[in-house]
């Protein structure tokens, strides 16, 4: 019988990009709901800071670079069976078309598209994702939903992630594993704060007025949807993308 509550007691959930922002909030909320959380990322110091804030015991940190295929394989082999996977690690950088080069494309693809695909496929090959578990990929409205200036490569990676999700869901459904994307609009995190280095405070405040709900999102807004997809409440949802954007794309 499906448990439609948000009780994650006895569940183990892997979260990438957990050292800050959305990934950190998801880790904290999963732990609060009773899960054992395994956090994977590059910055050991910041991951341990997140670890110190998690409720409950038994949580772990695995440090390494998701751009490294060998690290992904070794990390996956070391993991216990998982009830949930959240791929939150990613890179956002505004680069106009005239400044795009091959090195930048390769870096963006490696972090935002190749790494999530390799992580999911490696976990599946090693049978580390339990049947009837849930995988959540963090995408963006930039890509398959809208476009925006200086975001063409970033949008391409996020659109590609949503395409991967659709096809992967058909194969994973054979073992009742669900996979979905969450596509946020602008969320105020440490990562997006760098935009303030290139855009004035007045311009940012003006941009917020483009959102019917009058503000940018918060990590908690995204984490709430993620926990829904990880829980039994989302047990009949797979292969789709949920847009969280304060009404931006409704216009």
TrEMBL record:
UniProtKB keywords: Oxidoreductase
UniProt-listed SUPFAM superfamilies: NAD(P)-binding Rossmann-fold domains (SSF51735)
Nuclease found in the keyword field: no
Name under which the protein is recorded: SDR family oxidoreductase
Family to which this protein belongs: Belongs to the short-chain dehydrogenases/reductases (SDR) family.
Keyword hit for rRNA-binding: no
All copies of domain Ketoreductase, residue ranges: 11-185
Alphabetized PROSITE patterns for the sequence: ADH_SHORT (PS00061)
Single GO molecular function: oxidoreductase activity
């Amino acid at each position: 019988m499906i448990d439609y509550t948000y009780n994650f007691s006895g569940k183990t959930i892997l979260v990438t990009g957990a050292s800050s922002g959305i990934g950190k909030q998801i880790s904290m909320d999963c732990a609060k709901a009773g899960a054992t959380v395994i956090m994977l990322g590059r910055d050991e110091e910041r991951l341990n800071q997140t670890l110190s804030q998690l409720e409950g015991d038994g949580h772990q940190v695995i440090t390494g670079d998701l751009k490294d295929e060998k690290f992904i394989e070794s990390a996956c082999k070391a993991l216990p069976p998982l009830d949930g996977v959240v791929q939150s690690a990613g890179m956002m950088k505004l680069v106009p078309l005239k400044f795009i080069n091959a090195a930048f494309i390769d870096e963006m693809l490696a972090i935002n598209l190749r790494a999530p695909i390799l992580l999911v496929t490696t976990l599946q090959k090693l049978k580390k994702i339990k049947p009837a578990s849930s995988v959540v990929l963090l995408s963006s409205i930039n890509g398959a939903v809208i476009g925006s200036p200086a975001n063409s490569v970033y949008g391409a990676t996020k659109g590609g992630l949503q395409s991967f999700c659709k096809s992967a869901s058909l194969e994973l459904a054979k073992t009742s594993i669900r996979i979905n994307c969450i596509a946020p609009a602008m969320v105020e995190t440490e990562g997006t704060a760098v935009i303030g280095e290139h855009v004035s405070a007045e311009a940012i405040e003006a941009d917020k007025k483009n959102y019917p709900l009058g503000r940018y999102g918060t990590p908690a807004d995204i984490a709430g949807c993620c926990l829904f997809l990880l829980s039994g409440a989302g047990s009949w949802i797979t292969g789709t993308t949920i847009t969280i954007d304060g009404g931006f794309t409704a216009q």
